[in-house]
Design brief:
heterodimer, A: alpha/beta, Rossmann fold, four-stranded antiparallel sheet, B: alpha/beta, 14 helices
């Protein structure tokens, strides 16, 4: 589904990713872990198309298409969705309005018409219940005055409504208490299927107890230095990152 | 623009000089007492009206153009302007939509303006397209039953001279300011509304019904009076782009609200802003003032300003009545090379008077925008309250936003609050929306509409929908 080849990315002249390669297939859940400043968030941001990141070499291919040639909104319409670590506030724009606009943009790209209002309301009701959110959230301005946990739930709500083929979730666990984490994890797990893939970016192993990944990658200084299965995450939790660093330096 | 070019612009239609054809009499450029006498005579005005105009003219001669506004434009040559021209004859107008600039039609399409209205707005000889007379007649009958007078100011001078004499200039005196004095001397058109005691006007009044019948004037004069307990909602302008050969516009609007009366005045202005270099755009110098003369009276100004090259406009409220209330809700959008200096004045005179101001300024391109607001509380205005919120949104990094709040508080029991913010339309907000599949243009319009929501919800429903569409069109191509 997604293939990243020898990706080099610079931000304001500093090279953050230094030759990163990975392949994600449909149905898989990948987790990217690594110490602070290793470039974890950069990868998902580049795939989503954030402007400040300059790809100096390498390629990203999604379902046979050159992602780097696609506009930000085209990527989203094609099924690549980024869940933000720090979702922004948009005063005056109702949450439900953003959801509808996003869903209709995707439908339009797929050659479908606008979603009929009753169908949309039914869908939203269902998803908001899944995320254990109150219906009043829909009428509030996007993320305005939301607590950290509410913002993260809202990101997952958008994901459930848009049903991306590849969801990239950047530190979706940060700032969550254990109950909120369970709700978020349930939401993410409900997307798991043969057709969907998920890329989790996380600093802590904790989240991976709830969303068990198929593959875990350790990112250090802009490169993947070690990959493994869910056991690797647990090993990192108990031993820290130093042994991986030593191993990769050797 | 050089004054020479402007001269050419205003002269364009009048180069043939003095035409004596009864159908289309047009004065050559220039202003003196004879010109004013000509206008007054043309309108069949009584002697007192001519005297009133001349008093304004003589005062105007001794006045100078205000220079305090944050605006930059070359001096205007008032002798190069023609002060009277009859409406275009039907045969001089486009005969069908096929003859209208396709770009203009494209904009109407985007704004969702109904087909028959497009023709009227584009200046197509209306009778060739649809019969507007019947619409206007039904409309007038309904108002007549309620006792509401709605007609042109010229008609009012003829038909209701006592009312005009009593109220004209009672809110904005002839000598109030440079542009108001000029308007008082030469005004040729505008609306007159009178709602008698206890009557709630049965429909929203709109200049639209008048524009179909005659051209809008360059110097419009509007007078709205609500007697005790009366109510009216008045809509001025429309969202469609208005082109006009006249570059200088100096309108005066006077509102009078007696005890318990309520006047809601909504404006959507989308005049030609000029080309990319700002050339050819309309100069809009307006004096709008409401007089809350009666106790518990209320006047509410709502404006959406997107057009004109230069806007100089401060709809104000004189809160004279006890417990009277003044409101100002404004969205001003500037793009390209537009300049706007706009805001409001709330003058608290009556005890317990209240006012609220919500101003949203959006600057894009290389435009410049200023909010200028005065809150004045007099010594007798015990317990007066004002709340001001003034937010600016910048799109891009070549535009400017400025805020000039003035407060003159002459009373220790007054409560005055002022909040102001300036923010840049966030790259982060844009990226967030786009990463949800929403195009950049839709994202900008979504964010801007969110920013303006507090004001849009004050607009009559139909206007609000149009205003949202208008904002998107105005800001098209302002990002990226």
């Amino acid at each position: 589904m997604l293939e990243v080849k020898d990706l080099h990315v610079t931000v304001e002249g500093n090279e953050i990713l230094k030759g990163l390669s990975m392949t994600i297939n449909a149905g898989e859940v990948h987790a990217i872990m690594g110490p602070n400043g290793s470039g974890k968030s950069t990868l998902s941001a580049v795939i989503a198309g954030k402007e400040e990141y300059e790809v100096t070499s390498g390629s990203i291919t999604y379902e046979g298409r050159d992602v780097l040639e696609m506009a930000v909104e085209e990527r989203a319409q094609a099924g690549l969705l980024l869940g933000f670590q720090y979702p922004v506030e948009i005063p005056g724009v109702k949450n439900i309005y953003l959801l509808k606009a996003a869903l209709n943009a995707k439908r339009e790209a797929e050659g479908l018409g606008e979603i009929p209002a009753p169908e949309f309301m039914k869908l939203i009701k269902e998803k908001i219940a899944e995320m254990k959110m109150d219906a009043s959230f829909l009428q509030r301005s996007v993320n305005e005055g939301f607590s950290g946990g509410e913002k993260k739930r809202n990101e997952i709500l958008q994901m459930l409504v848009l049903q991306p083929r590849l969801a990239m979730l950047d530190e979706i666990d940060s700032g969550l208490d254990i109950d909120a984490m369970k709700v978020v994890a349930d939401g993410v797990n409900s997307l798991r299927s043969e057709e969907h893939a998920i890329l989790l970016v996380t600093h802590y192993q904790r989240l991976l107890d709830y969303i068990v990944p198929d593959r875990v990658h350790v990112l250090v200084d802009g490169r993947i230095v070690k990959s493994g299965d869910a056991d690797l995450a647990r090993e990192l939790e108990s031993r820290g990152y130093d042994w991986v660093l030593e191993e990769s330096a050797a | 623009m050089a004054s020479q070019e402007m001269e050419q612009l205003v002269r364009r239609d009048y180069k043939e000089g003095f035409v004596t054809d009864i159908e289309s009499e047009t004065l050559p450029p220039g202003l003196d007492e004879d010109v004013i006498a000509f206008i007054s005579n043309k309108k069949g005005e009584p002697e007192w009206m001519l005297e009133w105009r001349l008093k304004a003219y003589r005062a105007w001669l001794k006045m100078t153009t205000p220079s305090w506004a944050h605006l930059d434009y070359p001096p205007i040559d008032y002798q190069s302007i023609s002060y009277f021209s009859a409406p275009k004859r039907p045969e001089d107008r486009p005969q069908s939509l096929d003859e209208v600039d396709p770009k203009l039609l494209e904009t109407y399409e985007k704004l969702g303006i109904p087909l028959h209205e497009r023709a009227a707005l584009a200046g197509v000889a209306v009778d060739a397209v649809f019969d507007s007379v019947s619409v206007t007649t039904t409309f007038k009958e309904k108002l007549g039953e309620a006792g509401v007078i709605f007609c042109s100011i010229s008609e009012a001078v003829q038909e209701y001279p006592e009312l005009v004499k009593q109220y004209l200039g009672s809110v904005v005196p002839q000598t109030d300011n440079y542009f108001a004095a000029l308007n008082s001397a030469v005004f040729t058109d505008g609306s007159f509304v009178f709602v008698p005691k206890g009557v709630t006007c049965p429909m929203e009044l709109s200049t639209y019904f008048r524009i179909n019948a005659e051209n809008t004037g360059q110097f419009e004069r509007t007078l709205i009076i609500c007697e005790e307990g009366a109510q009216v909602s008045y809509l001025e302008g429309c969202t469609a782009p208005m082109r006009d050969e006249n570059q200088l516009h100096a309108a005066v609007v006077e509102l009078v609200a007696l005890d318990d009366a309520y006047i809601k005045y909504s404006t959507v202005q989308n005049w030609y802003p000029g080309d990319e270099d700002g050339k050819g755009g309309i100069y809009n110098f307006v004096t709008k003032r409401g007089d809350c003369r009666g106790d518990r009276s209320r006047i509410s100004w709502t404006q959406v300003e997107t057009g004109s090259a230069i806007t100089w406009k401060y709809p104000s409220c004189m809160l004279r009545g006890k417990d009277s209330k003044g409101e100002f809700y404004s969205v001003a959008v500037t793009n390209g090379r537009q300049q706007a200096d706009t805001g409001t004045k709330m003058v608290h005179i009556g005890e317990g008077s209240r006012s609220s101001i919500i101003s949203k300024g959006i600057s894009a391109g290389r435009s410049n925008q200023s909010y200028r607001g005065l809150v004045k509380v007099g010594p007798r205005a015990k317990g007066a309250r004002n709340f001001t919120q003034c937010d600016s949104l910048l799109i891009g990094d070549q535009c400017g936003a400025h805020t000039f709040p003035y407060q003159e508080i002459g009373n220790s029991t007054a409560t005055v609050e002022h909040e102001a913010t300036t923010s840049k339309i966030g790259e982060d907000q844009l990226f967030y929306c786009q990463s949800r599949g929403i195009s950049e243009e839709d994202a900008v319009s979504m964010i801007v509409n969110g920013f303006c929501k507090d004001v849009f919800q004050e607009l009559p429903m139909e206007f609000a929908v149009e205003a949202e569409a208008l904002l998107s069109v105005t800001l098209e191509g302002s990002v990226g």
